[in-house]
Amino acid sequence: MQKIDPILEFVEITPTARIVPDEHGWRSKCLQRLIRLDLPVPKTVALPAATVRAIASGHVVNARAMLEVFGDGPLVSVRPSPANPDWGGPATILNIGLNDARHAQLALTHGEAAADALYVRFVQSYAIHVARLDPDAFEEIKPGPGALAEVLRLYRNETDDPFPQDPAQQLSEVLRSMARAWEGTSARLLRQVKGAPPEAGLGLVVQAMAQGIGQGISGSGVIQFVDPVTGLPQVTGRYLGQSQGRDALKTEAALYLTCDKRGPSLEEVAPELFAELLRFGAVCRQRLREEMQIEFTIEDGRLAVLDAVKVQRSVRAGLHIAVALARDGVIPPQEAVLRVEPRALSELLHHQVDPRGPRDVIARGIAASPGAASGKLVFTSDAAQASAARGEACILVRRETAPEDIRGMHSSAAVLTERGGMTSHAAVIARGLGLPCVVGASDMRLDMRERKLTASDGRVFHEGDVITLDGSKGQALAGVADMLPPALDDSFRQLLAWADAFRDIGIRANADTPSDAATARRFEAQGIGLCRTEHMFFEEERLVVMREMIFANSPEERAAALARLLPMQRDDFVQLFDIMQGLPVCIRLFDPPLHEFLPHDRDGLRGLAEALDRPLSEVTRRADALREVNPMLGMRGVRLGVVLPEIYNMQAQAIFEATIESAQRGAPIVPEVMIPLVSAKREVEMVKARIDAVAAMVRTHAKVDFDYKLGVMVETPRAALRAGEIAQHAGFLSFGTNDLTQMTYGLSRDDAGRFMNSYVQLGVFPEDPFHILDVDGVGELLLMGAERGRATRKDLTLSICGEHGGNPESIDFCRRAGFDYVSCSPYRVPMARLAAAHLAL
Ligand code: PEP
Ligand code: MG
């Protein structure tokens, strides 16, 4: 017999006892709160982590003294109580103290069968969890006549000892086995995955058993008061008569709690107890400021609350619960805002596969763009467009996508690719379009010729077969899955309205088309921070005119082509201004190199020669002449504006005429005109002089005045370094961190994917700098540019509009650097609004 160590500490949980979450664990703290709320919690003793650690290393706690706390020898249970409920812990052991004598007593009060069943279960769990005997042998013994004798015999055979009869010895052994289990390697690894520190300790609670087995109404169950998927008020849970612990959750025979068609309920069987449970729920919600799941036992018509845990919840439910608590005055709005994780919001903006429904997975890949959609399989962009024309939803499946698939992607409900990663073409475009997307699904096989997809389990799907793509989980599913609609409901809007009141940095959206702008408005962006106008020229009809402009042989020919583009651009801007209703709109002048508008293969060039009615040789020669060795660093951005001023002149005229038209329609706007890829002050001076001249011309012609702002996009290191002099001619600077990252690293945006994974894995870069702003390098240029610009012009407006704009880390950086706003893709606006509020609170 080991020596009892008198210094090992334990404490009865009373309203005033010293119970510390870090020492005694969350469960002890929670039980103390329930006791303070006057809920009927059975007597409970808490063991701090220091005691449990000492037990694990061989010390023996005074279990007899502990049992004396409980008075007249009730049975007890032991449960784990780590500092954080997510860290798990060893299995709960019930009915400690049961022995031959107690069994005989129970047989008198509860009947032979009930007494046998309890004793058999205790011997089984003690044998498996404490004596560590082979579970199979013990689990095979089913309760019933003779079972008790059999488990006791098996126990003696396996251990050479009779089953221990001393309750203190039983308790002491249970505590020791639970303390040791916590120290085991696999338990350690499991909890570390869940974020537990290596030194995380385990508290334990020893609690008097409320018997759910016996006379009158006796049983046990769990109850919660909200739906775990939607967060809406709804009583759910299970109750099972003559049961203990979590039995009710394990059997189909359990009663439901509320009346419905599934059968008799606790509400019908014991309405007053049910009402009492509802009252407990309301008290917990009000005082613990949380939706709790309550574990209860009924013993001969008396309720006992054994435990309460935070209701497990989806993101959607979490948001709803936080808003409901704040609306009811239980928590302040800022706490509701802080309770929702910004990055989690993105899954609420889209349809989701209902987690309660079945899931027949046929392929797995990278979850590249969130949301879910069902539709017919198509294998080409043409088929996708044809499907859209018929009004049928389709899922586009490709090995990988290329620019010519964009229209196919537009026509699809979701996109699945065999290859690619988070920054592949399909992933980037799908995120921009808000389409669910799974990439790198290499466990499926595609036969593009036969147009069939072979799933990892060998099932074959043909074009036209219906599947569901879950871009949030990175899975393709057979058939139509049950869906939850986007959660852009009243709670969502309320939470973000509160967030807006707390944040101190503006959030705009990058929007190129009216549909992007409409999305930006829906997500309540405070304006457009970047409209990439060239995206307006890729549409079929305009592409032809654009190509005519590129191939013009004389200024007159070019002017004629531009004159045809002018009304189209003006229309684009009128539409944008209409949608944005007076909110600021920042329009970037033409940026890409011209060869991007030309076909690259022979067939395409032949088609172009036909369309332009020019000899193929001339078209080929001119196309060759426009080709660049390094197009990202060539004739693009303001360089085009300087050398071919007519394009910018046309765009400026279109912007100003649209401004006048919008004012006349009752939506006045002050447009912001932005010059891309600047590296020298002189570039800005030249473009500014011309744009001012166009403005004067439009004013004179229309006899109407209007205002506008002119600013510069800082995308080259030199522009950041020379921001002081550039700001002399700019009302605002917007940092284009995509190009700025590219040029700071000397690393092509389009080629970085080839080695970025290796670089990150090898720890050369901490993260992909095209995803997470490189605070040390690119960030320093941002700070330098901001400081030098503001030194020239105190009221200079500063912003960021690269892909980084929506990341919480970049928002943090920009906020601290005193930027006025960040601009990000429309679908990231809600996350950015919430993240900005978290940073300000
Ligand atoms: C940038 O370079 O950061 C930017 C926003 O422009 P684009 O991505 O169009 O080059
Ligand atoms: Mg750029």
Please describe the structure with a list of short key phrases separated by commas or semicolons.
841 residues, alpha/beta, Dna Ligase, domain 1, D-amino Acid Aminotransferase, Chain A, domain 1, 34 helices, binds phosphoenolpyruvate, binds magnesium ion, kinase, metal-binding, Pyruvate, phosphate dikinase, ATP_grasp_subdomain_1
How would you sum up this structure, described in words?
The chain has 841 residues and is of the alpha/beta class. It folds into 4 domains: 198 residues, Dna Ligase, domain 1 (2-Layer Sandwich); 95 residues, D-amino Acid Aminotransferase, Chain A, domain 1, CATH 3.30.470.20; 133 residues, 3-Layer(bba) Sandwich (Glucose Oxidase, domain 1), CATH 3.50.30.10; 251 residues, Alpha-Beta Barrel (TIM Barrel). 43% of the residues lie in helices and 17% in strands. The chain contains 34 helices and 31 strands. It has an 8-stranded mixed beta sheet, with helices on one face. It has an 8-stranded parallel beta barrel with strand order 24-25-26-27-28-29-30-31, surrounded by 6 helices. It has a 5-stranded antiparallel beta sheet with strand order 1-2-5-3-4. Helix 17 links the parallel strand 15 and strand 16. The two termini are 57 Å apart. The model has no long low-confidence stretch (mean pLDDT 92). Phosphoenolpyruvate binds next to strand 25 and helix 30.
